[in-house]
Amino acid sequence: MRYHASHSFKVAELKLNNKSNIINFPLKNMRGKNRAKIEIDNNFEDAVDIQEFIDHEDYSGLIQFCMQRAEENPEELYAQYYLGDAYVRNGEYEKAIEFIAEHYKKQPWNIDYQYIILDALFALGKTEDDFIWDKKPIILKMSPDIVNACYEYLKRKRKARSITELHCLFITEGYILFSEMDLLNALLYDERFIVDNPEDELYAEVLVAKKKHK
Q1: pLDDT, tens digit, for every residue of 40-86?
Q2: How many other CB atoms are there within 10 angstroms of residue 156's CB atom?
Q3: Are 208 and 155 in contact (CB under 8 A)?
Q4: Distance between alpha carbon 40 and the CA centroid of its chain, in Å?
Q5: How far apart are CA 27 and CA 111, in angstroms?
Q6: Residue-number span of the structural domain to which 175 is assigned
Q7: Model's pTM, two decimal places?
Q8: In CATH, what number is assigned to the domain containing residue 78?
Q9: CA 157 to chain centre
Q10: Cα angle vertex 97, ends 94, 102, to 5°?
Q11: In the 8-state DSSP scheme, what is residue 159?
Q12: Domain tally, the chain
């Protein structure tokens, strides 16, 4: 099914939320506890073991495993990161902040450490302002700038693109504080876009509407 913003159309749970910059943690397509996969550095020898704990949702076991690795390798960046991530996945948000904050002080430029802290802050219902940063990270919230960036990207494409692909455009730009569904909602209500399969974010695809010639 195709939807254009100029048509009348109602879909359950697709109303644009004027608080869409606030994420109810956790969401399956955001960072944190419910992520099925994590970006594991290829040089980290325990990557397979870590992923196995995650696949089985054994987060307490993951904590014990990562804690041992972190203690054995105190200077190993990824060993510390994965322990912080394990705390977040297990819902121990305060502990995640307390643990990673010490490593952040030594490496404030480390994005992985920044994002663990942000994961935990938002999970606690706090904001990025509730932590003392060396330099505050870039937080990407749902905004007209995000929608315009999607338009500029899509207008050069002949075929429709998935919501997932559009969401991934912003991964390198900062910490994404909006879900794929938030993005889908915003594009649904913008007349510049046509959306196929808007009922399901997994299959929704977007293209730019052709301009009508006068």
Answers
A1: 454 456 777 888 999 999 999 999 999 999 999 988 888 999 999 99
A2: 7
A3: yes
A4: 16
A5: 21
A6: 2-21+141-208
A7: 0.76
A8: 1.25.40.10
A9: 24
A10: 135
A11: S
A12: 2
